[in-house]
Amino acid sequence: NAGVTQTPKFRVLKTGQSMTLLCAQDMNHEYMYWYRQDPGMGLRLIHYSVGEGTTAKGEVPDGYNVSRLKKQNFLLGLESAAPSQTSVYFCASSPGTGRNEQYFGPGTRLTVT
Amino acid sequence: DAKTTQPTSMDCAEGRAANLPCNHSTISGNEYVYWYRQIHSQGPQYIIHGLKNNETNEMASLIITEDRKSSTLILPHATLRDTAVYYCIVRHQGGSEKLVFGKGTKLTVNP
Fold this sequence. Notes:
The complex is a heterodimer of chains A (113) and B (111). Chain A is 0% helix and 50% strand. Chain A is mainly β and 113 residues long. In chain A, a hairpin with a 5-residue loop joins β4 and β5. In chain B, β6 and β7 form a beta hairpin.
């Protein structure tokens, strides 16, 4: 099992550009999450999904959109990137159905100039 | 979710057991104790969780006191690669709630 993978690993964007971060998991997990982590701060939840075709807002959803068209994939989109979105983005998945330990991907380091 | 208290930092010699304590005196009866760690520049990693019985897996052991007000994560033979920040989290099993990491314990394994 590859576990949770994220694409790309690094990206530099100019203000106003758009991009999509891809998260894939091969563990047949129901739940998937997108977090961001900034220096000296903990994880902050952006959006999450409790199943294929569903999404929900976390604590910092503004400026981001997500889609979960397939159970194994969770996409995070930035429509118009801003310097405040410079961060490390982590995707995670959890089994659901009574178990919620979360398994994380390696992260995407995004810089917006 | 119940609040947890962990020491800010700990040191351990390579090859020795690392014992990381966590206090969670306000834990409720249906809350579990979860441990995660984050190695520098990597994603957080789930280690182990338990309710009231001691648990062991390939990575670590979790010892929960009988009154469930504290627990200890044990890495039996620490290696340099175990240097990381370790987080103790108390939460209900199930559900889709976000993970909330406190400050954690910075464990440094020394050669």
